[in-house]
Amino acid sequence: MSAHPLVPFSPPSGIGPFHIRPASEDDLPALFRLDTELFPHFAYPYFVLRQLFDVYTDHLLVLDDGSSLHGYALSAPSPDGRRSWILGLGVAKQLRGQGLARGLMLETLRRLPIGGVHEVWLTVEPANTAAIALYRSLGFAEQGVRKDYFGPGDDRLLLALRH
Predict the structure, then answer these.
(1) How many domains does the chain have?
(2) Residue 27 counted as domain residue
């Protein structure tokens, strides 16, 4: 398990206390439901989510209010620790616009291997202007559009943060 403590996080609007913490095995059913709600066409199958948890335990963070999960972030550092991918970021629809995704991303970036990661990459749906604005505000720069990234007609904007 992670050596990182529970990170309290209160969004600027003061909508309630949330904690950002590493996911536990017990979170997997709720995390699967949340991912399916957030990304109905691109949700991870349960078995893939399970395997991602097993491989990236310290890099799968959840946003928790003590009774349920409201968001998550998943990063995947390369074996050499020089590059990482953000494989997922999502916040419950009713809580968007409150700074929660920013908090998840900042904590995700903070937990990447210190001194090793020189690049963080991610993809985003080109029409998702809110997510693109968030990533740009964190220093990510556009690297171009990848046609058919998730299959025919499912293009993605590729972004990178370099140190």
Answers:
(1) 1
(2) yes
